[in-house]
């Protein structure tokens, strides 16, 4: 089949690779209904993360099960499924604690920017719908797999509640999904930090009540002003740089909570600053599996439309243009038809 | 009056100072029923925190109100009161959010190792008992003011619940109070890390189910072993050094919570370690005011005996010996009769 391979930074190709096969009796093979490019795919693409030989890219997926290993019990060929980018067994203590992204057997999905993909730990990872959903819901269900699940986790980790005042740091696809999640969780005020008109529009559409275009000290001053000097109850840190963490710490109130989902790059936190600032923090790779049934249900009922985050659709053959468009921030998130 | 003054590191004296006076209409003057020495008093005593001129020491207190300023409404002369080491107004947004230790008007108490002391923001800070309690409860009520309140906050911030598995890092007075708090909150397993026989005994008396004397990698291995490889749901970090934070991070499970109450000294936390470890964290100066009514009630009902943490009692005149005994770890915590 033709699939996406990153050979070295900047060199991404759609090329012939071997079809995926069942390797373990707990595997499933799915035919993808669509795939997409993640902001985190840009780290190796930009050379900011090592590339040790050709990488099969793609970890967001939904589609039809075509084959299962001998031990798979929970899904069967013909079913439409969504899975998390973190593969998990589900009965281990970490999974039962709701942290499937730290599963004792955790693997990270790869090779999903392709027509077919192998999903390890299928029973623990995949959630099937009752029926094959209509095609127009595929973008929304695909979003659940990572970008929405991660934005949702940011809001969950940041303890967004009915009536909360929330700041979202980062206007990438995950940040925008964080806005949607905060609104679904009943936040009263959702302040999106964004400097880009198209992202500001989408943030408003997803539920942002205020937009702050300023950054750094000016951004902090604007948010203090909007919150009568108090700061935010919950901050969603959706970037992962030292600057974005600094912003998140500065705009959260004492006793407020920061949920962080951008992999921290060169971030070091000063103990005394956290201590005297009284910031509660939780982050990590999102345990999307915990949220999958609920989020799929919200999509199937038409309550949320996270697929709006895809603002560019390309055929898989044009995946290189998709990476370029995201790298140059011409696109928020690219969906690939496979 | 004779009171405690730190002139320079190691030079602590009981000497004549001016009697405290009402300086603001929101002040109260109390006659202390007893006072004590805090582990944090040792930082300047040891020269690990700057001493800019003579410091009036002591921030833990309970006693009888003898005078109030013109605007004080909630307490009156003759009442027995306990207050927090953080002075707070109580109606500001941070106080209402339960973080009185970040009160917009916050001051830190000082000058309580003395027969009389001024308490600023008396209405927001002090909680009176219905009657003057019997003398034998004074050590317990004094402990509420900081050492118990801080240990309690460590357990609260670490989200200890019914059935939790808890590790307490640090066998100082605060750590021991953390053990007591975890037991009161219903923890099923409380593992105290302690190398000192007398502190181990007290930890068991306060509710520890297991003692781990090992530290570093061996300590981590022992706790992993005791928790079937999972780690602790909640960790109370009651020291504040890089080593103790390292220990706390290493023994908590993914999705577990670290409550930290030791002021961090030279502690820097790596973003990726927190992220991939999925550690929830909250710390800071304890908002003891939030817990005062409940903790005083538990003491008055005889449910808890936190005063047992005082293992040396001295007259105020011998305060220098008290500091030496705590500095040399001959005493866990020293009570001063004033």
TrEMBL record, chains A, B:
Protein name according to UniProt: Zinc-dependent alcohol dehydrogenase family protein
Family listed: Belongs to the zinc-containing alcohol dehydrogenase family.
Residues annotated as domain Enoyl reductase (ER): 10-336
Keywords of this entry: Metal-binding, Oxidoreductase, Zinc
Superkingdom as given in the UniProt entry: Bacteria
Species: Mesorhizobium abyssinicae
Xref: Gene3D superfamilies: Medium-chain alcohol dehydrogenases, catalytic domain, NAD(P)-binding Rossmann-like Domain
A Pfam family: ADH_zinc_N
Protein's UniProt keywords contain Metal-binding: yes
Cofactor(s) recorded in Swiss-Prot or TrEMBL: Zn(2+)
UniProt key word Nucleotide-binding: no
PANTHER family, sorted: DEHYDROGENASE, ZINC-CONTAINING, PUTATIVE (AFU_ORTHOLOGUE AFUA_2G02810)-RELATED, ZINC-TYPE ALCOHOL DEHYDROGENASE-LIKE
